[in-house]
Amino acid sequence: MVGSSEARPIERSVDFLRAPPGQLPWFLCFPATGEPNLTGIHENGPSGPGAPDGAAHGAVPRANARRSLVVQVLVQVLCVGCPLAVWFVPLGLDSRTQHGLSVASFMVVAWITEATEPALAGLIGCFLFWALGIARFELAFAGFASDSTWFVFGALLLGAVATRSGVGRRLAYLVMLRIGTSYSRILLGLIVTNFLLTFVVPSGLARVVIMASIAIGVAHAFGVGPGSNIGRGMFLVITYASGLFDKMIIAGAASIAARGLMEQFGQVEVLWSRWFLAYLPCDLVTMLLAWRLVLILYPPEHAELEGGREYPRAELNRMGPWARLETRSAVLLAVAVALWLTDFLHHVPPAMICLGTGLFALLPRIGVLEAAELRRVNYLPVLFVAAAVGMGQVLAATKGLDVVMNLLFGWMKPLMADVYGSTLALYWGGFLYHLVLGSEISMLGTSMPALMNFARSEAMNPLALGMIWTFAAGGKIFTYQSAVMIAGYSYGYFGARDLLRIGLWLTLAEAVILLVLVPYYWPLIGISM
Predict the structure, then answer these.
(1) Per-residue pLDDT reduced to its tens digit, 307-317
(2) Which one of 3, 36, 109, 378 has the minimum C-beta count within 10 Å?
(3) What is the pTM assigned to this prediction?
(4) In the chain, how many domains are there?
């Protein structure tokens, strides 16, 4: 990094990557949704060092914390009034069905408005299902017995392995060294590295932070800061790709939860390898499209990095030779990826591979994590997924899913006359639903069970419908739609208009790619509508 006093906050922002044993980086102590404590990113303000309009950029991610009292009261009234209305208004439904929908409406409204921590709202909902006699305890809290819940926990452990050991940073600098040091090549290197890190760091939020620490150093090496085209281009592509790759690979709480719901309610096997192969062409095309799009929309101020390959080489020299911890971590992560890629042969569930690898990493002497780090992991994403899955199971048992299915997907049926109409209706329907329900897990948790019921009732393939619907959650144009977007935005290198601009272009491009993949490529690998 640059040695000036201006760069010192940046040095501190990278310290989490060198966390000592027994201390997890800050992003593993993040809520999956809601309002993260973004002060962990910058000590001199969320907009980044030297940002000319730092206050303007930093205000948005923490807007929820400064809501007026009136807005807070309205949100709380909505969270109470909506479920009470559903409970008492005569809807002509069975009482158990209506009461289940009432509690579910509380959970959904709380998730949409972020009235409280989403995991807490989910736990309250599960408790109410049980306490009000809507469901027995084992049904109300059935989400805790779902493999999706423990898949997320295992993903948190694997993220800790990759970051604590430094494998993620070393991989990023090695890719940069091989691809080149012109701005165009560096941008492509950041995209490729982000994609490769998806296999070993199954958290978009974690990847944003890993890649951001490198992008900040690159920006300073180019002599630019927040607001520059170089800075905007790098941070936009890092942030957006981190949220999108999570949907094309089962790596992240949203796609993990979606997979579990598809297997449970769609009664279909969801293989990690098949999902990966289905979206592999989309991955490759998206990487090239994002690269060229950013170069066109944000032409760089400087085409070449002064000093050439010396920057990534210097960073690798600073890291030193491969340490024993790095080697063990790399082997462990490679084994997990190899098992995921070959699950069509051995059929070991992806969740079992993920959790088993994470627990192995905690074993004394042979592991790479300290057992004490379990006390520092944030379990809120795990609880959130468990509550979302549990809500779906209660609604299925109380026939509430049939009501939700008619409301959500009744309008789609006339549009799904063929594979092209079905693809577009599902993709844009999921995109619009995600605009209303900002959280990815909330969006998928509240709709996937109903979608699976719809697929089975219409004799359609639950796997294909679920994969398209999950992919639609990757299309984003506003920061509130994901903690990954909030984290990337908080560095202050790009604004809301930039995200809207790049988001609209890539969302349209992904729709066109799906129109080619679904009818022509997916049937070749055994996925048909």
Answers:
(1) 667 777 888 88
(2) 3
(3) 0.69
(4) 1
